Amino acid sequence: NYGENNSLMVITRNYSGPALIAAGIIAILLGFIGKLAALVGTIPLAVTGGLAIYLFGVIGMQGVALMLAEKVNLYDPKQLAVGAAILVIGIGGHIGFGGNLPIPILTSIFPSGLPAIATAAVVGILINLIFLIFKAPEVPTVIEASE
Fold first, then answer.
1. Do 86 and 40 share a structural domain?
2. pLDDT per residue over 23-37, tens digit each?
3. Nearest to 89 by CA among 62, 114, 72
4. For the chain, give me the number of helices (H) and strands (E)?
5. DSSP letter (8 states) at residue 53
6. Is residue 101 within 8 Å of 119, Cβ to Cβ?
7. So what's the pLDDT on residue 27?
8. What is the DSSP string of 9-33?
9. Which residues, 6 or more positions from 33, have their beta carbon under 8 angstroms from its beta carbon?
10. Are residues 45 and 88 in the same domain?
């Protein structure tokens, strides 16, 4: 939710602490008062869906902007492998498996599967660890002799 909150502040350009506190109180009230939740339920699905697409798109673009600001080399095969695995598992797992990935080894602990986003994060960490432990051999560069 941290990324969603930051993105919402960027979208609205409202960084006011009291406004965030008021929004939190409203969210709590919506959770406990059924009539307020029913009122929110009257908002057309197309409206909430469009807002969700925009909000999550902004979250994704902020991630890309952060990588560019930190000068992450997106042409590096290692960086591409990590990013691609996280995107495919996180997004594809949510679409293909309803948000939970059935991992056979863990079905006794997580019978409905692991959340795709959490699984994507763990896979990204594991791939990074593999790259740290098993370093690729250095390839000598060929220097051409000048004539």
1. no
2. 889 888 888 998 988
3. 114
4. 7, 2
5. H
6. yes
7. 85
8. HHHHT---HHHHHHHHHHHHHHHH-
9. none
10. no
Query: Radius of gyration of the chain from Cα atoms?
Result: 22
% the chain with pLDDT above 70 = 93
Beta strands in 55-102 (DSSP E): 100-101
Query: Residue 47 and residue 66: Cα distance in Å, rounded?
Result: 29
- 63, amino acid identity: G
Q: Which of residues 55, 71, 87 is at a domain's end?
A: 71
Q: Can you read off the two tokens belonging to residue 127?
A: 């791939």
Q: CB burial class (10 A; 0-12, 13-18, 19+) of residue 57?
A: exposed
Q: Please identify which residue in the block is written with the tokens 């495919």.
A: 88
